[in-house]
C-alpha cells in the first residue's frame, strides 16, 4: 500500500453528512471534486458525482459521495449483526466522552446498548449517522489495550 486507507460512503444530503463527520467526529475537509459522468458511469457509480474527501485526524480518508444522476435512498438499511457487507466505520479516540456528548447533541442514534460498552480494556460505542450508516468510536480509557488489536 502506498497511501492511507480510504472508504467511500454514498450520501443523500452531502452538506448534512459533511457537518456530521467534521463537527461531531472531528474530520476535516481535504478537497471537493465533481466526477464527470464519463468517469463515474464506467466506474459503476451511476454517472456524475460530487465527492468530498474528509481527512481523519489519525490518517485515512472518508469520501462522501453524492450521485447527481441517481437517487439515493432516504436512509441506509438498519444495521444488524451478521448482515453481509460493510457494517461500520471505526474511529479510535483518546477520549470518547466529548464525542459521545456531541453525537447525542447532534441527534445521532445510539446503536449499542448500553451506549458505552467495555471490552478488552477499551470502551466502544456504536451510533447511526444522520443517514443510518453506523460508526463505532473506541478509546482506551478502560485500560491499556494491545495497540495491534481491533475490537
Oligomer: single chain
Radius of gyration, taken over Cα atoms and rounded to an integer in Å: 16 Å
Q: Identify low-pLDDT runs.
A: none
- Termini separation: 23 Å
Shape field: globular
User: What is the overall pLDDT average?
Assistant: 85
Helix percentage range: 10-25%
Structural write-up:
The structure is a single chain. The protein is an alpha+beta fold and 151 residues long. It has 3 helices and 9 strands, in the order E-H-E-H-E-E-E-H-E-E-E-E. Strands 5, 6, 7, 8 and 9 form a 5-stranded mixed beta sheet that branches. Strand 7 and strand 8 form a beta hairpin. The mean pLDDT is 85.
List keywords for this structure.
151 residues, 5-stranded mixed β-sheet, 4-stranded mixed β-sheet, 3 helices, globular
Short description:
This protein has three helices and nine strands; from the N terminus they run E-H-E-H-E-E-E-H-E-E-E-E. With 151 residues, it is of the alpha+beta class.
Detail the topology: elements first, then pairings.
Elements: E1 6-10, H1 14-24, E2 28-35, H2 37-40, E3 49-55, E4 61-67, E5 89-92, H3 97-106, E6 109-110, E7 117-119, E8 122-128, E9 134-139
Parallel strand pairs: 1-4, 5-9
Antiparallel strand pairs: 2-3, 3-4, 6-8, 7-8, 8-9
